[in-house]
Amino acid sequence: MTQSPRRSATGAPSKATQRVQRYVQYEAHLNPIAQALAAELKMPLCSPTSSFPGLMPYLDRLVSTGRDTPSNMCAWFGPHWEEGTREMHHQARLATLSTPWPPSPYINVYVNFHALGRPRPPTKEEQAELKAMLDYSTRSLSRPKY
Known about the structure:
The chain is mainly α. It is built from seven helices and no strands. The chain has a domain at 15-99 and 106-121. The longest helix has 18 residues, at 124-141.
């Protein structure tokens, strides 16, 4: 189950997430580092006149290409990126790291996959979490059926 960003009692995104969303929509397209990163990843930056796709498409692309470094995250999501995207970034990393790498480069033709890089190696905490997820899934598969 994926976690959504922190939300207030009314169901709206947290103030930190709202700050990040505003930065992505109104300021990131002016940042030269974000512009260069967007060109490299072949992913358009949001602008005030375009529709806002949300934060996940950007997080997913940065994570899946291994470009989710603190400097890139700050350029793309602004100075409050850590508190505004922490949970979403963590979930995107776990989802990407737990997905098997495609067996063939020709998979790019058939699915929306980009061979621009690989994700960064997992941290020790992520390795422990991935192991726990794998243990849980294999345990549930090996249960006897009554």
